[in-house]
Amino acid sequence: MSVEDVWRETTDRERRILVEELVENIAIFPDHLEVSITGAPKMNVTLQEVGLTGGLPSRGVGG
């Protein structure tokens, strides 16, 4: 059974559990994400690959 098959058959709650068990860390950088998955090398993912645009506004004190 492929990962796609399993994903299709799971509920939202089950998907969340799977992700929580597999994803060790997500580091956020200005131009990409660094994703650590259990048992795999870190992956660099562009913001565009996950539907993000970057350029989050920074806020000062009281902003």
Question: Any overview of this molecule?
Answer:
The chain has 63 residues and is an alpha+beta fold. The chain has a domain at 23-50. It has helices at 3-9, 12-22; strands at residues 23-28, 32-37, 43-46. The chain has a 3-stranded antiparallel sheet with strand order 1-2-3. β2 (32-37) and β3 (43-46) form a beta hairpin. It is globular and about 45 Å long. The mean pLDDT is 87.
Number of strand segments: 3
**What order do the helices and strands follow?**
HHEEE
Terminal-residue CA separation: 50 Å
Major β-sheet, in short? 3 strands, antiparallel
Beta-strand fraction estimate: 25-35%
Unreliable segments (pLDDT under 50, ≥5 consecutive)?
A: none
- Helix percent band: 25-40%
Strand order of the largest sheet: 1-2-3
**Total helical elements:** 2
Give the helix/strand class: alpha+beta
On the 0 to 100 scale, the average pLDDT is 87
Oligomer description:
single chain
Tell the overall outline.
globular
Radius of gyration: 15 Å
